[in-house]
Amino acid sequence: KAGVTQTPRYLIKTRGQQVTLSCSPISGHRSVSWYQQTPGQGLQFLFEYFSETQRNKGNFPGRFSGRQFSNSRSEMNVSTLELGDSALYLCASSPRDPTEAFFGQGTRLTVV
Amino acid sequence: AQTVTQSQPEMSVQEAETVTLSCTYDTSENNYYLFWYKQPPSRQMILVIRQEAYKQQNATENRFSVNFQKAAKSFSLKISDSQLGDTAMYFCAFMKHELLNSGYALNFGKGTSLLVTP
To answer: Do B109 and B27 meet the contact criterion of CB atoms below 8 Å apart?
Structure first.
């Protein structure tokens, strides 16, 4: 069974640009959540989607958005990038039991 | 809001020895889940062990076990017979039970960097 796949693995963007990250969950998993990991703030919850609906959202500005498609694949978008958005973005998918979250290897975003 | 505190930024242990990583949390919830995740240099988060707050028995997974003290809001991880492959960042995390069907979110501590030496 394939794991959670995040693309791209690495990304370099310029301040002010926007970026879209993709997450393909494990087959059969309908819940996808996103986390931002930085050295200063640690791991912070961004949002969670289930069956194309955002069910929960963390404390991030509106520049951070996401969506989930009917095949459970999810994308997150960050507009008007700031230097502080440089981080490892992790995606996790879960089966019916959300306490069994499986993480992808992350997308390393660098904003210059 | 729930806070998770890991007071040991770095720890070191020799191969085959036992090490304990500390975690405390603050919550007004009565029903919740606690987790330990491992993040090796590959950066992929791996679930090590989980504990349901309403279960008094401490969870065990092979060489990994926890000491869950609900009243003290403490959740430590013991790694027995440490192996070189255990070298990683270890994160303690909290999840409210009520969010299971309405949008779960893991609340992580800052992590403990564990180095296993030969």
So the answer is: no
